[in-house]
Design goal:
Number of domains: 2
Shape: elongated
Distance between the termini: 23 Å
Number of helices: 11
Radius of gyration: 19 Å
Order of helices and strands: HEHHHHEHEEEHEHEHHEEH
Largest sheet: 6 strands, parallel
Strand content: 15-25%
CATH architecture of the largest domain: 3-Layer(aba) Sandwich
Structural class: alpha/beta
CATH superfamily of the largest domain: TPP-binding domain
Bound molecules: adenosine-5-diphosphoribose
CATH topology of the largest domain: Rossmann fold
Helix content: 25-40%
C-alpha cells in the first residue's frame, strides 16, 4: 500500500473546493459484482451483444432470460448486492462535505444503497425498468411480481409494452441530464478521484481529461491555463490509459481498502 500517495490524496482532498468522484465496476467487485474486463469478468461470461439495444428490441425474451439467469446464477448478484466499504467511504466523504457528487458508470445502485445522495448514473440503473411504449417506470420489487405472475418473457407493462432495464445498452444515448451534469462537474472540479474503471469506454473516459483541463483546443495549453491547479487521482488495481498521461498519480490496490484508509486519515487530520 502506497501510504505517501494516500497522504497526498488526503491533502488534496482537504484543500479541494470541488471534488467529484468517477467510479467504474471495480468499486463493486468487493460486493460480489464482477467487473467487465478483468479475468472472469462479465464480458468473459456473457455475450456483449445481449446488451446491444438493437438486439434487445429484436429478441427481448432472449435478453430477459439471460438477465434472470445472470442474477439467479449467484455468481453475479447484481440485483441483491450490498454496498462495500468503498461505497460507504464515498458516502462518508460526501457527508463530511468533501465530495460534491459521485458520477458512476455502474448500474448496480450500490452508491445509493451506501447512502450517497448526489449520484449521477452515467449508464442508467439496472434496478429500474421502463416500458418501451408508454415510458412508465417500475421498481425491482414490482418487476419480480410481474415476472412471478407472467407466464412468458419479456415482462410487460400494464399497457402491454415490453419492459426494458433502464440501464444504457450499447447503441443507446447517455441520458442527457446525466451527461450534462457530469461534464459540468468535470469542468468545475479541482479534484477528481477516478475509482475502479479501466477508462476505455467513451464518453465517460473523457471526464478525467476534462477535469484535468486537457480537452481544450490548445491540447496541453488547456491543462496549463484553464485548470492549472486541478488534479486527477486514480484508485485502481492496475494502470489504465489515464495513468501517466492524464492522472497525477495512481494509488494501486483495492478500492475498498484505499478509500477506507483515506477516510480514516481525513478523520485523523480533522481531529
Ligand atoms: N479495486 C480497485 N480496482 C479494481 C477492483 C478493486 N477491488 N476490481 C477491479 N478493479 C479494476 C480493474 O482492474 C479494472 O481496471 O477496475 C477496472 C474495471 O474496469 P472494467 O471492467 O472495464 O469496468 P468499467 O471501467 O466500469 O467499464 C466501463 O464498460 O462495458 C461497459 O457499460 C459498461 O460501464 C461499463 C463500462
Amino acid at each position: 500500500m502506497d501510504f505517501p500517495l494516500i497522504d497526498r490524496a488526503v491533502d488534496l482532498l482537504l484543500r479541494s473546493k470541488h471534488t467529484v468522484v468517477l467510479t467504474g465496476a471495480g468499486i463493486s467487485t468487493e460486493s460480489g459484482v464482477p467487473d467487465f474486463r478483468s479475468p472472469g469478468g462479465i464480458w468473459e461470461r456473457y455475450d456483449p451483444t445481449l446488451f446491444f439495444y438493437a438486439r434487445f428490441v429484436a429478441e427481448p425474451d432472449v435478453v430477459w432470460r439471460c438477465l434472470i439467469e445472470m442474477n439467479s446464477s449467484g455468481s453475479l448478484s447484481l440485483w441483491d448486492a450490498r454496498p462495500n466499504r468503498g461505497h460507504l467511504a464515498l458516502a462518508e466523504l460526501e457527508d463530511m462535505g468533501l465530495v460534491k457528487a459521485v458520477i458512476t458508470q455502474n448500474v448496480d445502485n450500490l452508491h445509493q444503497k451506501a447512502g450517497s445522495r448526489t449520484v449521477i448514473e452515467f449508464h442508467g440503473n439496472m434496478l429500474v425498468f421502463r416500458c418501451l411504449d408508454c415510458g412508465r417506470r417500475y421498481g425491482y420489487e414490482q418487476l419480480l411480481e410481474i415476472i412471478a405472475e407472467g407466464t412468458s418473457l419479456p415482462p410487460r407493462c400494464e399497457c402491454g409494452g415490453v419492459l426494458k432495464p433502464d440501464a444504457v445498452f450499447f447503441g443507446e444515448a447517455i441520458p442527457a441530464d446525466a451527461l450534462n451534469e457530469s461534464f459540468r462537474h468535470a469542468q468545475e472540479c479541482d479534484l477528481m478521484l477516478v475509482v475502479g474503471t479501466s477508462a476505455q469506454i467513451e464518453p465517460a473516459a473523457s471526464l478525467p481529461i476534462v477535469a484535468k483541463g486537457m480537452h481544450s483546443m490548445f491540447r496541453g495549453m488547456g491543462a496549463f491555463f484553464s485548470k492549472i491547479t486541478s488534479h486527477v487521482i486514480e484508485i485502481n488495481r492496475e494502470p489504465t490509459p489515464l495513468t501517466g498521461e492524464v492522472s497525477d498519480f495512481l494509488i494501486q490496490g483495492s478500492a475498498g481498502e484505499i478509500l477506507s484508509l483515506i477516510v480514516q486519515k481525513v478523520k485523523e487530520k480533522r481531529g
